[in-house]
Amino acid sequence: AQTVTQSQPEMSVQEAETVTLSCTYDTSESDYYLFWYKQPPSRQMILVIRQEAYKQQNATENRFSVNFQKAAKSFSLKISDSQLGDAAMYFCAYSKKETSGSRLTFGEGTQLTVNP
Amino acid sequence: ETGVTQSPTHLIKTRGQQVTLRCSSQSGHNTVSWYQQALGQGPQFIFQYYREEENGRGNFPPRFSGLQFPNYSSELNVNALELDDSALYLCASSSRQGFYSGNTIYFGEGSWLTVV
Question: Considering only CB atoms, which chain A residues are within 8 Å of B96?
Answer without folding.
Answer: 101-102
